[in-house]
């Protein structure tokens, strides 16, 4: 069990767990608000505004100075990419079940930072590389829905979203010198601006939205778990290799599915259950 002593991997896995809970909360919040693109974007915007407010309080209490230069730019760029990616992802979801497209998005989110890390940090070694490939298979098994016909534009949206999420991981890594909290605060600034502009551009075209007390509770839950997961990912990326942090954090669909099984009584499919077992094998290989 010694592989669990790897701090980089521990933080990344914890981030995956929290991100999965945050995604579940965000999905439930969007559903309670109307289940369309506009409602999803408003849930994202409200949760990011909430977390940004908390992050500012933390920064004020710590007395951290505003960062400048490359870390500041990388942090804001991460937020813009994250906001655009979430927008594309939710638009695709609003068109119906994404099926294999969801898995494509998850795979790109893991593969792009892994490739960047290999180019900048060198080879991760044969064992870890094998673990990355097995993790990719696990992501596909867990996230891909049943075979179905999908509009090619939906698939392209998922590809663009996955690429954006991959860039988000990389940008957060390079924003790391700004400190443990500022990278997330800067990213929230970028995502809040981006989502606000998109909502203004929709001008009511994204569907009716109903914000209830239940929606607000889901928004608060999303803000708590998503922000906590992001902070842990920043810490993991600062502590060790980006590829290890990104690939392990990209296993977050597993916790979403387990939470849905517990709360909504949605039983995982055999393929998803097998994917979770495969994910355990990948974690062992990556963290040994």
What's a quick, concise take on this entry?
This protein is an all-alpha fold and 288 residues long. Helix content is 78%, strand content 0%.
N/C terminus separation: 9 Å
Number of strands: 0
Helix fraction?
over 70%
Order of helices and strands: HHHHHHHHHHH
Query: What structural class results from the helix and strand content?
Result: mainly alpha
Beta-strand content estimate? under 5%
The whole-angstrom Rg is 18 Å
Write down the domain tally. Answer: 1
**How many helical stretches?**
11
Overall pLDDT metric: 85
Specify the biggest β-sheet: none
- Residue runs with pLDDT of under 50 for 5 or more positions: 1-5
Overall, the morphology is globular
InterPro entries: EamA_dom (IPR000620), EmrE-like (IPR037185)
Keywords: Membrane, Transmembrane, Transmembrane helix
GO cellular component, one term: membrane
Protein name: EamA domain-containing protein
Question: In words, what does this structure look like?
Answer:
The protein is mostly helical and 288 residues long. 55% of the residues are buried. It has one domain. The protein has eleven helices and no strands. 78% of the residues lie in helices and 0% in strands.
């Amino acid at each position: 069990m010694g592989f669990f002593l790897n701090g980089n991997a521990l933080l990344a896995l914890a981030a995956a767990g929290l991100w999965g809970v945050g995604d579940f909360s965000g999905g439930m919040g969007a559903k309670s608000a109307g289940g369309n693109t506009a409602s999803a974007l408003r849930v994202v915007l409200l949760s990011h505004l909430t977390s940004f407010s908390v992050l500012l309080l933390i920064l004020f209490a710590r007395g951290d100075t505003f960062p400048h230069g490359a870390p500041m730019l990388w942090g804001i760029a991460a937020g813009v990419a994250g906001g655009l990616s979430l927008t594309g992802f939710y638009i695709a979801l609003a068109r119906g079940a994404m099926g294999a497209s969801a898995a494509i998005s998850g795979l790109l989110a893991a593969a792009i930072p892994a490739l960047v890390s290999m180019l900048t940090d060198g080879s991760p070694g044969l064992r870890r590389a094998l673990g990355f490939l097995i993790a990719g298979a696990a992501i596909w098994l867990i996230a891909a829905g049943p075979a179905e016909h999908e509009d090619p534009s939906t698939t392209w949206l998922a590809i663009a979203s996955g690429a954006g999420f991959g860039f988000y991981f990389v940008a957060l890594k390079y924003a790391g010198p700004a400190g443990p909290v500022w990278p997330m605060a800067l990213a929230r600034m970028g995502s809040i601006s981006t989502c606000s502009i998109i909502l203004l551009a929709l001008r009511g075209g994204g569907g009716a939205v109903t914000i209830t007390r239940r929606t607000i509770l889901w928004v608060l839950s999303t803000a708590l778990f998503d922000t906590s997961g992001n902070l842990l990912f920043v810490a993991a990326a600062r502590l060790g290799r980006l590829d290890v942090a990104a690939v392990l954090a990209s296993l977050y669909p597993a916790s979403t599915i387990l939470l849905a099984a517990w709360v909504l009584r949605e039983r995982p499919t055999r393929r998803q259950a097998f994917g979770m077992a495969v994910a355990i094998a990948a974690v062992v290989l990556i963290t040994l």
